[in-house]
Design a protein that fits this description.
Layout: E1 23-24, E2 30-34, E3 44-49, E4 54-60, E5 67-69, E6 74-75, E7 81-87, E8 95-99, E9 106-111, E10 125-126, E11 132-136, E12 146-151, E13 156-162, E14 179-180, E15 186-189, E16 203-207, E17 212-215
Antiparallel strand pairs: 1-2, 2-3, 3-4, 5-7, 6-7, 7-8, 8-9, 10-11, 11-12, 12-13, 14-15, 15-16, 16-17
């Protein structure tokens, strides 16, 4: 019908300023994150039922459990939602969290810190091996960000690759989600670093089998 309809006004108390897209979960409802707003002004995790037009806040971020989520949620194959926050947690370097749609329970699964990767700006993907993969924009061995893997069945976090602004022009400070292509390789972009301009960023391929980054552009 080419009709635009405003469905809900975000606000300070129920969540405001969202930098993420929503996802549709297997229950048919939409889920999203706001960076700000809520009880602690640290953002919220919300649900929107477009059949009933009901907006519901399911979790208020509070600092210790994470704050300022910056990207979209992921519904993993176990049916639960996973995401990251840019800040908050024990060292204020962000957290990785889980939300159970059945029980309504929010769980902080992992606290990032500078030594193993900090400030994740991007959300997660689930790779073909079932584990979750993401990037941090800073921290790690060289302080320039990481690619990491998280096994939600064991709660084990592992650094897969540490970016280094001085090594092989592979870029640094990734701020967007990875993609696993049909060839099994991971692809992504960095916000900084390249062979031509230190501030241009680069498009890279990550081969997990040999733990190597290739700068493609």
């Amino acid at each position: 019908t080419k009709t635009y309809t405003k469905k809900f006004d975000l606000n300070d108390s129920l969540g405001g300023i969202s930098y993420s897209t929503m996802i549709q979960a297997t229950n048919g409802k939409l889920y999203g994150l706001t960076r700000d707003g809520g009880i602690s002004n640290s953002g919220v995790l919300f649900e929107y039922d477009y059949i009933t037009s009901i907006y519901t806040v399911h979790f208020f971020f509070d600092g210790f459990h994470g704050e300022n989520p910056n990207d979209r949620l992921l519904q993993a194959s176990n049916g639960k939602l996973y995401g990251t926050t840019r800040t908050g947690g024990i060292t204020d370097d962000g957290v990785l969290f889980e939300y159970d749609l059945i029980t309504g329970v929010y769980s902080k699964k992992f606290d990032f810190n500078y030594s193993i990767g900090s400030r994740p700006m991007a959300g997660l993907i689930q790779a073909t091996n079932g584990n979750l993969y993401g990037t941090t924009s800073s921290g790690g061995i060289n302080g320039d960000g990481t690619i990491y893997e998280f096994d939600y069945t064991t709660n084990v976090h592992a650094i897969k690759f540490s970016f280094d602004v001085y090594a092989n022009n592979n870029g640094y400070a990734p701020e967007s989600r990875l993609l696993q292509a049909s060839n099994g390789q991971f692809y992504g972009v960095t916000s900084r670093g390249s062979s031509n301009n230190n501030f241009a960023g680069c498009f890279f391929e990550y081969d997990e089998t040999i733990n190597t980054i290739t700068n493609l552009a």
